[in-house]
Each structure stands twice: as C-alpha cells, then as structure tokens.
C-alpha cells in the first residue's frame, strides 16, 4: 500500500507543480516585461488569464509584481501539501501548514530561477537561435538576477555570472528555505 501512496503523491506533486510553474512563469514574465509577441508568452497568458482576471480585481499588482499569480502559486503549493497530508491520513494544524506552504513557496521560487538560469545558460552555450521563443523568455526572466554581476565574473571571454547567481540561489535554499521547512514540519508535528 505505501507504494501506491508514494506513486499517488508523486502524481499529485507533478500536477500541482505544473500549475505552480505555469503561474510562476506568468509572474516572472510580467515582472521582467518579457516580450508579449513571443508565442510562449502568449500561451502562458492565454492559460493563466481566466484564473487571474477575477483575482486581480481584488488583488491588483504591486509595482510589476502580479500578486494574483503569486497567490495562485502559493495556494497550489498549500493545496498540494494538504492533499498529501490527507492521503497519509494526517490532518495538519493551520499554523504548521501555513508555514510549510510559505517555505514551499520560497523554495519553489528559488528553484524556479535556478532552473531558468541554468537552462538559459545551457541554451546559450549550445548556440541556440537567440530568437527562439524559449531562449528569449528564459533570457528575459534571468536577466534581472544576472545584471548585477554580469561582466564582473569574467575569465577571458567566459562570463561566470550565471554560475555565481545559481550558487547564491542554492545557498538561499539551504540557509533560508530549508530551516523554514524544518520549522514548519515541527509545527505540523506539534513539537
């Protein structure tokens, strides 16, 4: 029976992760003012707008941050945690679940940017077409994080700024998100 629960948990994580990723892409694309004429940007907009349009009436943007998309990402991660706990036959307390879901949100955002920066730098190293929609969107999303260190981490003609930013994001996962996840787990356990 635990094998079936593990498989079901994995499927739930994939489904909620896909939803969170779609809305995180919308959040990052809007925040970086990614090219709307990009077919990938249009796809993201088309499939997130029916959910975000009503929420944005109550929760408008703050500067360039789409708070409605951030709320949907957080709610999807909260529901994922809740469903997995319920599958295990455990009803978590609200404070622990809220802390865990906020830690999940922070960890998810950090991991999202690690994947975007790594994917973009890999595509550029492989000399992918710079006008390809994925390269353009990933480049637009990665640029705000890379801009502060770009050009400062050069060795010859190689720019190591993506490596430095990924290391900083990995450290943030280890030193900020992981302790917050541990704290939320302790709250859920009641310890």
Average pLDDT rating: 93
Percent of residues in β-strands: under 5%
Global structural class: mainly alpha
Share of helix, binned: over 70%
What count of structural domains?
1
Order of helices and strands: HHHHHEEH
Stretches where pLDDT is under 50 for at least 5 consecutive residues are none
The count of DSSP E runs of length 2 or more, i.e. the number of strands, is: 2
The tally of helices reads 6
Q: Looking across the biggest beta sheet, what order are the strands in?
A: 1-2
Which descriptor suits the 3D outline? Answer: globular
Largest sheet: 2 strands, antiparallel
Could you tell me how far the N terminus lies from the C terminus, measured between alpha carbons in angstroms? 28 Å
Tell me the radius of gyration: 18 Å
What would a concise description of this structure say?
With 191 residues, the protein is mainly α. It has 6 helices and 2 strands, in the order αααααββα. It comes from Dyella acidiphila.
